[in-house]
Amino acid sequence: MKQSQLFTKTLKEAPRDEKSPNAKLLIRAGFIDKLTAGVYSYLPLGLRVLKKIENIIREEINRISGQEVLLPALHPKKNWKITDRWQYKEMFKLKSREGKDFSLGWTHEEIVTPLVQNFVKSYKDLPVFVYQIQDKFRDELRVKSGLLRGVEFLMKDLYSFHRDEKDLNEYYEKVKKAYFQIFKRCGIGKQTFLTLASGGTFSKYSHEFQTLTPYGEDRIYLCPKCKLATNKEIMKEQNYRCQKCKSQKLEIKKAIEVGNIFKLKSKFSEAFNFKFKERDGKERLILMGCYGIGLGRLMGAIVEVHHDKNGIIWPDSVSPFQIHLLSLERSSRVEKISRKLYKDLQKGGVEVFYDDREDKSPAEKLIDADLIGLPMRMVVSERTLARGCVEIKKRNQKRGKLISISKVKKLI
Amino acid sequence: MKQSQLFTKTLKEAPRDEKSPNAKLLIRAGFIDKLTAGVYSYLPLGLRVLKKIENIIREEINRISGQEVLLPALHPKKNWKITDRWQYKEMFKLKSREGKDFSLGWTHEEIVTPLVQNFVKSYKDLPVFVYQIQDKFRDELRVKSGLLRGVEFLMKDLYSFHRDEKDLNEYYEKVKKAYFQIFKRCGIGKQTFLTLASGGTFSKYSHEFQTLTPYGEDRIYLCPKCKLATNKEIMKEQNYRCQKCKSQKLEIKKAIEVGNIFKLKSKFSEAFNFKFKERDGKERLILMGCYGIGLGRLMGAIVEVHHDKNGIIWPDSVSPFQIHLLSLERSSRVEKISRKLYKDLQKGGVEVFYDDREDKSPAEKLIDADLIGLPMRMVVSERTLARGCVEIKKRNQKRGKLISISKVKKLI
Question: How many CB atoms lie within 10 A of CB A412?
């Protein structure tokens, strides 16, 4: 894409009310726009990142047999009365002109459970794995962490349905692996730790995936040896010892929860009286699990982990484009070579963001490139052309190097 | 995909409260599920259709330089007070715990106008074309047409920003062509007519795209010669004559509006005081256009147009799979050949839906295949194998034909 065509622009200043690095950088670089607290628009660059994250998640969840659906955001009161969660205080409520009560979904157990119940009658129909990537709403107070905590936010929510606990446990472990794979592919694998958390009334533990970042809202206790983390609540129960190696040498770290997995067991199947016929002819309650990842939050976490004082440093896998091609000066030679490289790179299947802007100085272009943060920068200037070269530099490295124009194709 | 793996099943009966062919067929065939009036879930087969429609729309709108964004569904009251549309009666309203007033977006002029205003200052920044594919909400009364009228529905909404009327008019004509291309690619080109409608206060006319169907909620006056339609309101003004050829031989038809395009001119730029600096240094108001297509409605319209008494007849371009492969009987030979064909077709890049269900009779499989409505059916049975063949039949043709198994590859 040509940068001159993009309707957004980088901003010199971040909005004053944004304190978190993710919001400041993503807004300044033109990835998102704040409509009101906790409610953001995704601009063209931001949407490209979001779609890449979405595709990584989709691939990994499809790999563990997830079947994708799209459930409504608007939920009738009836469903939430059945589970006695209509009073949940973070849930937005509204009324239609005809007087019907609705809520806006912040999770979908109340919708997916009766939906799957329509189709599952026998052990032969099990297990079932259903997921969606869909907009959620949560009436949060005092949101101030950019994409890390949204009032409206995109989420991948997966629900699993099983005939027994063994099957649920096996799938739960599969999801754990898929989640590690997702966070690894999104470039935050090293910073993300499985964290023991409370399982509520249904299960002893649930698991969170916590990514270390100074702006995280959570505190976790990390065992540097086992790489296992524990949240505050559980840590107290365990007398501040690692659950695995019993060590007390734990590090207290700030972190942000990028995913969670939860054994719901029969909580929702009981509420909806969702039973199936076992091989022996007896009726049994379905067991369930639920598994969430916030897409915007994940995008925010990636920026929290990967940035420096000059801007974002996108991991390859989620970067809106792979190469930022800068036509540094306005000379016919520089522009001609730049245009040719732009076409050649595109033909080679490379996603190129081409800074062809005519009203920007070389310094402005270089500053913008650092702010936007594509993993690779390719500069064409009089200086590089004098040596028959372009300069390429990785965003996470200090120095670039000159390569001859004829070798650019090999680079791809 | 193997049909035995799909968690949904076909239903013998449509829900009693659904009257429209699209809802009855889509629910029975397992494409959608009704949560409450006007609010539907997309099940795996339905989501596949929706994604294909989405991709066709995205390709055509990208072709006319649309830049994709994703705007929030939750809108602050403030934006709607500026344009004096806060009282719009079909708009859902809600309050946060902190007492903030929100509405749920049924259109996005109030959001996209100030967003683009952030970035556009000069004639050099124009024109701008921004679109999204996003969830909308409309508090409709007595909805009863399945996907043709939703309370919650996915929409593609495109907004254009121009420096003068000439530029707006030119783009408006481009969108018209892109829309025809979209409806043609979705298989309803022949049934869809450009229809003159009221332009409200901003413009003499706007244009609707109306698809002829007996369940349509609108009435249009169609000139069989010019292929131009006019809605009731405008027809009256024109004394029931074709605007183009002045003929009075018009056909009155039932139709459903699948898209509309509208010149907003300066209505919204005035409200937001959105001006740009012209070449002569003077400030002028931006001119705008808006262009919508409802994705679910389009899916419903396709089914209204393409079905028979046995089920849906999907056009190739939007069908969830291209071939329905039926392993008709449970014999090791039939199953072995079916499995091999399934693999070969997939390797050849064909999207195959493979009916490998063990608990269904041949008759049940054939009935389900007609109901689900993939464009091509391939049957493997003892009878076909006795002749070294499979039977292939197009869904829209009465008779199938036998082709030898060795020729299946060539077919691809």
Answer: 12
Query: How far does chain B reach from its first CA to its final CA, in angstroms?
Result: 18
Query: In this predicted model, what pLDDT tens digit does every residue of B162-218 receive, in sequence order?
Result: 999 999 999 999 999 999 999 999 999 999 999 999 876 566 789 999 999 988 889
Return the minimum-mean-pLDDT range out of A306-310, B197-201, B354-358.
B197-201
Token pair listed for B129: 């074309």
Please tell me the total number of residues recorded for chain B in this structure. Answer: 412
Q: What is the pLDDT of residue A96?
A: 97
List the structure tokens of A261: 């997995």
pLDDT class of A73 with cuts at 50, 70, 90? very high
- What is the residue whose two structure tokens read 């740009």? B276
Residue where the block lists tokens 């790489």: A227
Mutation target to probe the A interface, by most A beta carbons within 10 A, among B13, B54, B96 is B96
The CATH homologous superfamily of the domain defined by B21-308? Bira Bifunctional Protein; Domain 2 (3.30.930.10)
Kindly indicate whether the ipTM for this predicted assembly is greater than 0.95, answering yes or no. yes
Question: What is the distance between the alpha carbons of residues A145 and A217, in angstroms, rounded to a whole number?
Answer: 9
Structure token digits, residue B345: 């077709």
Which residues of B, range 114-173, sit inside 8 Å of A by Cβ? 115-116, 118-120, 124-125, 128, 130, 135, 137, 139, 141, 151-152
Encode pLDDT of B150-176 as tens digits. 999 999 999 999 999 999 999 999 999
**Candidate CATH numbers 3.40.50.800, 3.10.20.310, 3.40.50.720, 3.30.70.270; the one for domain A321-411:** 3.40.50.800
B402 touches chain A (CB under 8 A): no
> Residue type at A286?
I
| CA terminus-to-terminus distance, chain A | 18
Is pLDDT at A100 greater than 80 in this prediction?
yes
Q: Which two tokens stand for residue B36?
A: 């409450």
User: Domain limits of chain A?
Assistant: 21-308, 321-411
Q: Output the pTM of the full model.
A: 0.97
- The shortest C-alpha distance from B93 to chain A (Å) reads 7
Cα B3 versus chain centre, distance = 25
Is residue B73 within 8 angstroms of chain A, CB to CB? yes
Residue B365 has pLDDT above 90, yes or no: yes
Residues B282-337: tens digit of each pLDDT: 999 999 999 999 999 999 999 999 999 999 999 999 999 999 999 999 999 999 99
Closest Cα partner for B68 from B177, B152, B159? Answer: B159
Domains A21-308 and A321-411 share a fold: no
Residues with Cβ within 8 Å of residue B147, at least 6 apart in sequence? B22, B23, B26, B32, B40, B153, B296, B297, B299, B300, B303
* H or E element that contains B294: strand B287-294
Nearest CA in chain B to A138: B96
The residues with which B68 forms a beta bridge, in sequence order, are B131
Q: CA quadruple B19, B25, B27, B31: dihedral positive or negative?
A: negative
CB atoms within 10 A of CB A241: 16
Give the pLDDT confidence score for residue B129 in this predicted structure: 98
Q: Does B399 reach chain A within 8 Å, measured CB to CB?
A: no
> Could B5 and A65 be called an inter-chain contact, meaning their C-beta atoms sit closer than 8 Å?
yes
Q: Return the DSSP state at A141.
A: S
Instruction: Name every chain A residue with its beta carbon within 8 A of the beta carbon of B36.
Output: 74, 76, 100
Task: Tell which residue, B199, B194, B118, has the closest CA to residue B161.
Answer: B118
Structure tokens at B155: 């929409």
How many angstroms separate the CA atoms of A212 and A180, rounded? 14
Is A200 a residue whose pLDDT tops 70? no
CA atoms within 13 A on the CB side of A33: 24
**Nearest CA of chain B to the CA of A334: how many Å?**
22
B9 alpha-carbon distance from chain centroid: 24
Phi/psi of residue B30, nearest 5 degrees = 85, 30
